[in-house]
Design brief:
Shape: elongated
Structural class: alpha/beta
Distance between the termini: 65 Å
Number of strands: 17
Radius of gyration: 27 Å
Strand content: 25-35%
């Protein structure tokens, strides 16, 4: 092999490794799979995962990227040893990643490669991923999401669809336990129940008969039957029916007094974080004072799909998932759009025992 051919081969192999990183960053899995020989293999023992053949590499990569909140890979050139129509080499990488379920970290790794000259040019015969350093400390930064899905890259739409799906999927038992522990550490009482029926029964234990109770405008309460139990069951002094029957102009002061300081408020939330924060959103803000502290006692019923890793993801869930659904409901019921004009974030409960969070293992509401 002459020197010119060796130089050309090295340049092409280095371009192949660069193409791999670009395809991963652009979430273009068909292109990434095409960089392997038909029987090529991508092995990642640390994950663990192993894909053999282009179709497995494409499908496995799409499953992996559907879990990402963000992913950044930087590749540094390593050695290339040529041997006719085959070669071996190494590339060194640094990665930052956070998944939609909150796992995150920084790692440094090595790709151990085998390359094969083909009619299509140099291709990977095998890539073996070896992690040399892993730091799972919380990442301080965030990825901008405002333009996600607005470009022409089909992968953007895939990422947006995956994100929407994640906001509708129930959290695992492990994540619910993590949320409950964080809430308790912040002064909330937290219970994990199987379903809405269990929450419906638990409400009767938590709120004594005859108590004054305000319910929030919540699909979770409506779908579970809790709204009907409280406002039409006759067991409690239900505040919402009284407010709805009052004249908005002449009774404005009385309405504010009733909804601001009830004995109990029962509501849901738009999101709950694994760090123990509750996030409520409102168009008018009328129901927020009672939740914030005006009510002597508060009970929040939270479907498992509302669990998110942190506050930044919670706010995205409000805007990207809950608001569109609430907007559609408001248009159908009131003939007018909804909006997030007020946000309430409860990071802790300074009066331990005042607030109780009933975390459900099932998804309900939005």
């Amino acid at each position: 092999m002459n020197d010119f051919q060796a130089i050309a081969d090295r340049v092409e192999i280095e371009a192949l490794r660069g193409e791999f990183t670009d395809a991963a960053m652009m979430r273009d899995r068909p292109r990434l799979a095409s960089l392997f020989t038909p029987d090529g293999a991508l092995r990642m023992p640390n994950i663990p995962a192993e894909q053999v053949g282009r179709e497995e590499i494409r499908a496995g990569g799409e499953r992996l990227q559907s879990q990402w909140d963000f992913f950044v890979q930087t590749t540094h050139p390593g050695t290339i040893l040529l041997d006719g129509d085959t070669a071996t080499g190494r590339a060194y990488i640094q990665e930052l990643a956070r998944t939609l379920d909150g796992r995150q970290g920084l790692n440094y790794a090595v790709y151990h490669d085998r390359y094969q000259r083909t009619a299509e040019g140099w291709r990977f015969a095998e890539r073996v991923y070896e992690v040399r350093y892993l730091d799972t400390s919380p990442l301080a930064g965030t990825a901008p999401h405002t333009a996600q899905g607005s470009g022409t890259n089909p992968a953007d739409a895939t990422a947006t669809a995956a994100l929407a799906a994640s906001f509708a999927d129930p959290a695992s038992a492990e994540r619910l336990e993590r949320v409950a522990a964080a809430l308790r550490a912040g002064g909330f009482a937290a219970e994990i129940l199987d379903d809405a029926a269990a929450a419906r029964a638990r409400i009767k234990d938590l709120i004594p008969e005859g108590a004054g109770v305000l319910t929030g405008a919540s699909e979770t309460l409506r779908l579970s039957g809790i709204d009907e139990d409280i406002n039409a069951g006759g067991r409690y002094d239900a505040i919402r029916p009284r407010v709805l029957a009052m004249d908005r102009a002449t009774g404005a002061d009385e309405i504010r007094r009733l909804v601001t300081g009830p004995e109990f408020v029962v509501n849901s939330v738009a999101a709950v974080t694994e760090t123990g924060s509750l996030v409520l959103a409102s168009g008018s803000g009328s129901q927020l004072p009672a939740n914030a502290g005006g009510a002597a006692h508060a009970v929040w019923i939270v479907g498992a799909q509302k669990v998110v890793p942190d506050l930044s993801t919670a706010l995205r869930r409000v805007e990207e998932h809950a608001l569109p659904l609430e907007n559609a409901r408001a248009q159908a019921v009131y003939g007018m759009p909804s909006a997030v004009n007020r946000l309430l974030i409860l990071n802790a409960e300074p009066r331990p025992g005042r607030g109780t969070v009933l975390l459900l293992r099932e998804a309900i509401g939005y």
